Amino acid sequence: xxxxxxxxxxxxxISDADKSFLLLYKEGSEQSSCALKNVxxxxxxxxxAKFFSADVNVVRDIHKLYGVESVPSLLVFADGRLTNIxxxxxxxxxxxxxxxxxxxxxEETSVRKSAKNVTVYSTPTCSWCNTLKxxxxxxxxxxTDIDVSRDQNAAEALVRRSGQxxxxxxxxxxxxxxxxxxxxxxxxxxxx
Length: 192
Hints:
Distance between the termini: 36 Å
Shape: globular
Mean pLDDT: 85
CATH architecture of the largest domain: 3-Layer(aba) Sandwich
Order of helices and strands: EHEHEHEEHEHEHEEH
Radius of gyration: 18 Å
Oligomer: single chain
């Protein structure tokens, strides 16, 4: 994994890459150290993708340009375009799977399922929330993300509807799913 010191340097290095990843981290943070260690391990097992890192103590422009407000965050790029942001620290096997999943491009199906209205209620520091959002993106499910740590009214409305305070909670066409209950999510989203 290569360290970059600015946005300009980073962009110049991914101009010819199909797939690239940039870990934004903060030196001295336990979560960042965890993410850095696991991304380094995953990067050693991937031959096709380029991996970069930037310490926000040193690099001041990248996180602002991509709207990243918390670290560690792994930015995922395809053909130089930002396609996903994975927040928090995950196991190296998760990062390895992420590098493999980015190679997968689902074919358009001839029969389109009816569009679902999906809203995810989450917080930036919730690892299950980030896992849920990554899973929705992987399955090409558009969703609205509401950060209940910043929107007290949404948090109160959510408790009134579900009777639960915890996150993640997902509203799919009026049906609430508490936690990352994959079988229930697949059922409501009609995913095989």
